[in-house]
Amino acid sequence: MVAPVRRALVLLVLAAAALLVVVDRAVTPLTPVRAAGARVYGAAESAFGVATRVFGGDGRLRELERENAALRARLLSSGTRSAGRLSVPGGYQGVAAHVVGFGRGRSVAIDAGASAGLGRDMTVLDADGLVGKVTWAGPGTASVSLITDAGSSIGARVAGSGELGVVTGVPGAGLRLSLFDPNAPVEVGDQVVTLGSAGGRPYVAGVPIGTVTALESAPGAATRTALVRPAARLSALGLVAVIVPRPER
Predict the structure, then answer these.
(1) Which of 23, 115, 186, 194 has the fewest Cβ atoms within 10 angstroms?
(2) Those residues with Cβ within 8 angstroms of residue 13's Cβ, 6 or more apart along the chain or in another chain
(3) Which of 78, 77, 70, 118 has its CA nearest to residue 95?
(4) What is residue 22's predicted lDDT score, i.e. its pLDDT?
């Protein structure tokens, strides 16, 4: 009884995903159609998630709830404070979501959207560090561009020295840090965090980006560069949080 139900739900989710791909490629300018597709996909994913929790046992459900509660406790803040290795500025809160699929290029889909307050250019992170930014939000789902995307560009700071630079995605190599000062001190093992954007979008300040793993040598270059390993496990994402402004009272 359980197996046929699961198979039926999986087929439903796959069919909805296929519909979204067709809509996205053929009628991208038709926002209402895309939003409708997002509703279908979101509903199918929610149904599948509920069935998985029911048939997967109470143990897994409790585990997810504990993860959710722990991440919320670390992220939600009434003022600027340090939450473990994460620094969440006042005026923001974390909306928890689960990664439910992979999109085109270096992107993922999450099961939260505009109905939860999500919008374009919002920071996405997990308990380890920066994941990316929201690039599109439907009613119940959203697309997130990962920091390793080739088009990614993030203002950064080297923790400790405070040196400033830009972190970009490098296909097949992870991330590259380009420091503005070609003589800036940087060593393997240095931690790199977000510099922060105006209004906290697309990136809030102080979120771990990664760790310097190798220094690159380019005599006469205008900048100093290094390779960086992402802090977040981007190949094994599960529970994430999107940083959104707190609603005004």
Answers:
(1) 115
(2) 41, 44, 45, 48
(3) 118
(4) 43
8 A C-beta contact, residue 137 and residue 111:
no
Residue 11 confidence (pLDDT): 54
Quick check: pTM over 0.85?
Answer: no
Tens digits of residue pLDDT in 59-83: 555 566 555 544 554 554 333 333 3
Q: Which helix (H) or strand (E) holds 239?
A: strand 239-245
Q: What's the pLDDT tens digit per position in 143-165?
A: 999 999 999 999 999 998 999 99
Half-sphere exposure of 114 (CA within 13 A, CB side): 9
Q: Which amino acid is at 114?
A: A
Tell which CATH classification among 2.40.10.350, 3.40.140.10, 3.40.190.10, 1.10.468.10 matches the domain 153-232. Answer: 2.40.10.350
Give the span between the Cα atoms of 97 and 116, in whole angstroms.
Answer: 10
Cβ atoms < 10 Å from Cβ of 220 = 5
CATH homologous superfamily for the domain 2-146+235-245? Rod shape-determining protein MreC, domain 1 (2.40.10.340)
